[in-house]
Amino acid sequence: MSYVIAVSNEKGGTGKSTTALNVAAALAERGHKTLLIDIDPSFGLTRMLGAKPESFETTIRDVLDDENPATIHEAIQELKEYKNLFFVPAHTKLAVLEARFEPFWERLLANALAPVVETYDFVLIDCPPGLGFFPINAYVAADLIVIPVQTEFIAFTSLDKMGSYLGGIPEDLRPAAFHLVPTLYDKRTKHAKEVVQELQKRFPEALSKHVIPRTVGFSDSSVEGKPFIHYDPHHAAAEAYRGVAEEIIEIWQSKNENPSAQAQPTS
Ligand SMILES: Nc1ncnc2c1ncn2[C@@H]1O[C@H](COP(=O)(O)OP(=O)(O)OP(=O)(O)O)[C@@H](O)[C@H]1O
Ligand SMILES: [Mg+2]
């Protein structure tokens, strides 16, 4: 059964696109057919893959358009360099959709994905920061929310906001589980260690055992348009992202055995 993951955090710059790309690449590397979708009008993920939105004939913008929509099939790009990895680019003009839609707008992405979702093992949706049109479309489509959390105390403010927001979404519409991934970890600072301890205390079940270290290699890999796990495959950060991918595979497998309670990131 296919597993759909929204990669989201209300706060900007926490490593959402980096996490979506590297976890997807790690799942694909493990032999799982994986679709990566960029629904951010700032197209951070599309850029990380070395692509320009204008160079694609069809993007997620056309798929979500209410006037003359394209099918998701038309927007899926095969990333030939990476086996099992497929990609739907974003477009700056995505932003106009937010203002246009009214009834049932929260189901647009789920409906668009329906014809292909079962042909993938994993679908990862890279959300823009904030809450609203794009994140809610991703949450409605998703089984799991992966929340990349920067290892700074300010992170808890966004987590609290997300908790209240998710709490307001009807249970049958929101994902059954969430998984927190500490990112941008600087082991030299006491502050970062304390944040991880606090996350551990507040979210003992949902916190990843893998912490993504801060390393300049991520910017370099973006310049090359490559997932970091392929740019520097033996680096500790690449191994950490592979570890996160393994955890997600376990959550996916256990979901099939135990379609359990709903969860939300409140402490
Ligand atoms: N572990 C890391 N170490 C160092 N730099 C990182 C790491 N993870 C991400 N970065 C860098 O931090 C910046 C923000 O990362 P990214 O774009 O993944 O965040 P985001 O949450 O998607 O941002 P936005 O909210 O703008 O979409 C990028 O320049 C990225 O290369
Ligand atoms: Mg991003």
What do you see in this structure?
- By secondary structure, the protein is α/β, with parallel strands linked by helices.
- The chain has a single domain, classed as Rossmann fold.
- 40% of the residues lie in helices and 13% in strands.
- The protein contains 12 helices and 7 strands.
- The chain has helices spanning 16-29, 44-48, 60-63, 72-75, 95-100, 108-113, 133-141, 155-167, 190-202, 217-223, 228-231, 236-257; strands at 3-7, 34-38, 77-78, 85-88, 122-126, 144-150, 177-183.
- The chain has a 7-stranded mixed β-sheet with strand order 3-4-2-5-1-6-7, with helices on both faces.
- Helix 1 (16-29) packs across helix 12 (236-257).
- The two termini are 31 Å apart.
- The model has no long low-confidence stretch (mean pLDDT 93).
Keywords:
globular, binds adenosine-5'-triphosphate, 7-stranded mixed beta sheet, 267 residues, Rossmann fold, alpha/beta
Brief write-up:
It is built from 12 helices and 7 strands. It has 267 residues and is of the alpha/beta class.
